[in-house]
Amino acid sequence: MPELTYLEMTHPSELRPSTSTFSGQVQLKPIDGNEVRTLTLAVGRDFAWPSQQWDTQQWDEYLGNPTMRHWAGVIDGAAVGLLSLNLRQAPDIEIDSFGLVPERIGHGIGGPFLTEAVTMTWGLPAQRVWLHTSSDDHPHALQNYLARGFRPFKRP
């Protein structure tokens, strides 16, 4: 059974921007529909995300959820990752999904992408940004969240 770690930020000043040597710029591009599905499946493929097993009805419900917003992380016009936010309890905003496509892992992009994602989320506006990560996620996921200033608030 995977271990879940719940993390939060309660003020924008808690964000610690990435110091990665990655020299590019990660931009956020709003996406929907099939683009969300394609990126979710790519990002979660190696990490046992439940969405890997969804049927058409589950995808339709997820993509039709009015509280969800999705962005692709883009570098030089190519999608490198996914950010999905759940605004159900706004201004408490949940990072529902975040990650890189497999071929972009290990290139120093995760920190800058998360920095950009959290900066944008605070501007929605948010009063709290939170997420959970799993021991089944990429081994650097928790480290990246902690390095950006997220702190644990609950461990079931």
TrEMBL record:
<dbReference type="Pfam" id="PF00583">
    <property type="entry name" value="Acetyltransf_1"/>
</dbReference>
<dbReference type="InterPro" id="IPR016181">
    <property type="entry name" value="Acyl_CoA_acyltransferase"/>
</dbReference>
<dbReference type="InterPro" id="IPR000182">
    <property type="entry name" value="GNAT_dom"/>
</dbReference>
<feature type="domain" description="N-acetyltransferase">
    <location>
        <begin position="34"/>
        <end position="156"/>
    </location>
</feature>
<protein>
    <submittedName>
        <fullName>Acetyltransferase (GNAT) family protein</fullName>
    </submittedName>
</protein>
<dbReference type="GO" id="GO:0016747">
    <property type="term" value="F:acyltransferase activity, transferring groups other than amino-acyl groups"/>
</dbReference>
